[in-house]
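Hi R.,

As promised on Friday, here is the backbone we talked about, encoded as structure tokens. Could you run it through your design pipeline when you get a chance and send me back a sequence?
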């Protein structure tokens, strides 16, 4: 009788140990409640898209969402909350304020950022008071992670790629801005994008967060003046051409990586 009784005592412990080792949904990052758009208005393409067609249709003229062009499952496995904290928790990360034209920089340990600063966006908070981990990566310290990333296969002639890795809380984002062409891939969470062509300057305040713009300005725009928009999910990559205005809004706590083509 002792053996069956001991087995009954050990089985729950074994199950708990197994469950604790299982991958958490969303990589252990916090889900959010910020809504998606009613309808995605950015064109999508899959792995059947050829390089010549990409250059012809999208590279210099309009954004596109790519799916299935790369497999970053190995990179994603390294980007869970627990694994990133174990590997980089004591490393300093440089945070930027989430406004358009001026950026205050703050250095904090990665663990402090994740455990204390990675919170849902306060609608009343200004961009200059919102700290955002994106870019300014130390490529020596984070090199082991970036080596596992498989970038999109399409290059723009005359450019070279540079990575920018980030993690941000639900409701956070960067207001409208523009720069050279690039890609952005969501690893965990969901990220909503708003895009205007170079000849259409959006109406926005540079120190207003994207969440506040969505609540206050977006509803007043006539449909013909609304931006292209879409929500990216894990495994999807957005390409944006040179000088296109864009703003981002993280619907969940999001892990993402961009490839800027400078």
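Update: got your reply. Pasting your designed sequence below so it's all in one thread:
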């Amino acid at each position: 009788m002792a053996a069956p009784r001991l087995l009954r005592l050990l089985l729950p412990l074994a199950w708990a140990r197994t469950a604790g080792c299982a991958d958490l949904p969303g990589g252990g990052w916090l889900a959010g409640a910020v809504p998606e758009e009613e309808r995605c208005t950015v064109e999508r393409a899959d792995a059947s898209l050829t390089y010549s067609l990409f250059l012809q249709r999208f590279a210099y003229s309009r954004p596109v969402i790519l799916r299935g062009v790369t497999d970053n499952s190995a990179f994603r496995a390294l980007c869970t909350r627990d694994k990133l904290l174990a590997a980089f928790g004591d490393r300093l990360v440089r945070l930027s304020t989430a406004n358009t034209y001026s950026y205050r920089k703050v250095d904090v340990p990665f663990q402090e950022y994740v455990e204390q600063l990675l919170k849902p966006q306060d609608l009343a908070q200004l961009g200059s008071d919102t700290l955002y981990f994106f870019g300014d990566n130390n490529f020596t310290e984070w090199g082991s992670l970036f080596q596992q990333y498989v970038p999109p296969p399409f290059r723009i002639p005359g450019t070279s790629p540079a990575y920018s890795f980030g993690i941000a809380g639900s409701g956070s984002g960067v207001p409208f801005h523009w720069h050279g062409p690039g890609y952005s891939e969501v690893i965990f969470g969901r990220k909503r994008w708003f895009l205007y062509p170079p000849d259409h300057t959006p109406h926005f305040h540079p120190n207003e967060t994207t969440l506040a713009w969505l609540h206050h300005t977006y509803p007043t725009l006539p449909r013909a003046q609304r931006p292209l928009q879409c929500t990216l999910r894990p495994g999807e990559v957005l390409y944006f051409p040179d000088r296109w205005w864009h703003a981002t809004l993280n619907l969940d706590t999001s892990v993402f990586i961009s490839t800027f083509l400078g």
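One thing I noticed while checking it: The chain is about 25% helix and 25% strand.

Thanks again,
M.
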